[in-house]
Amino acid sequence: MGAVREGLFPDDAIVRTVNRENVLLLGGGRALLMQLAHPKVAAGVDEHSDFRAQPIRRLRRTIRMTMAIVFGDRETAMAAVRAVNQTHARVRGAGYRAMDPDLLLWVHGTLVDSAVVTYETFIRPLSDLAREDFYRQMNEAAELLGVPRDRFPATFSAFRDYMEDMVASGTVRVEPLARELSRHVLRPQVRLVPGRAMIPFEVVTAGLLPPALREQYGLRWGRRQEQFYRLLAKALPRLIAVTPPVLRVWPLPGHNVELAPSLALKA
Question: CB–CB of 25/243 below 8 Å?
Fold first, then answer.
């Protein structure tokens, strides 16, 4: 193996420790539904992508972008940043534009919050210091993607207040378009996979979502769903703790992500 080239973050950075855990994929549905709950984000996604036909593609692009920026060498990371910014620059419509700092901050917030919630649910709780460091490092990446530095809440606690206030104020709310698009997230049409096979993913997504948004989306959350979710939240951390890194994380520590961002991140 050749020498590992310098990236934007050192290999022992908390942003890498958290984001390399494969179990974070379980939080992907949560992040998507939170993004769609912002009416302007939902409109942009619906009008400027193939989300209805390929809902998982948006999540896959987001993961590739994140992995390229967090784990790529500096050249790969900055190429990914340029590709994302060029794509966002073309996305605009009635009352919205993708480069709007407020929309960028919300989308970024859903990724940070979902990563922390999913990691702490299925891996282990983070210390207060680790949360602050993760938040700060993720903000460094988001700043490259167009979020002005002065828009970030000053601390992780203030960031959590911002996320809650966005929902409580009604700025983020589940409108009919978001509810319609959510069906493509929760029950995507995947070849050879029956829709009922996605029920566990739907329960996990409902369990991870803020209760207010779960209710607005009309997701089932009775005793059976809650029992399944609690069982998973209890069993998975024990299983993951004894899983070898080669199966548990990607990329392995000491490995850079090598992508062709101009191709992998194409809208």
Answer: no
Nearest to 69 by CA among 107, 133, 12, 15: 15
Residue 218 corresponds to which tokens in the numbers above? 């009309």
Q: How many domains does the chain have?
A: 1
How far apart are the C-alpha atoms of 21 and 216, rounded to whole Å? 30
pLDDT for 198: 66
CA nearest to 46, candidates 114, 16, 38: 38
Question: How far apart, in whole angstroms, are the C-alpha atoms of residue 44 and residue 167?
Answer: 19
Tokens of 236: 């998975």
Burial group, residue 90, by CB count within 10 angstroms (0-12, 13-18, 19+):
exposed
Q: Is residue 252 part of a domain?
A: no
The Cα diameter of the chain in Å comes to: 53
Domain housing 239: 14-245+259-264
Is residue 5 domain-resident?
Answer: no
Q: Across the 267 residues of the chain, what is the mean pLDDT of every consecutive 10-residue run? A: 76 97 96 98 95 84 92 95 95 96 98 98 98 98 97 98 98 98 84 62 97 97 97 97 95 78 40
* Residue 70 CA from chain centroid, whole number: 13
Beta carbons of 113 and 165 less than 8 angstroms apart: no
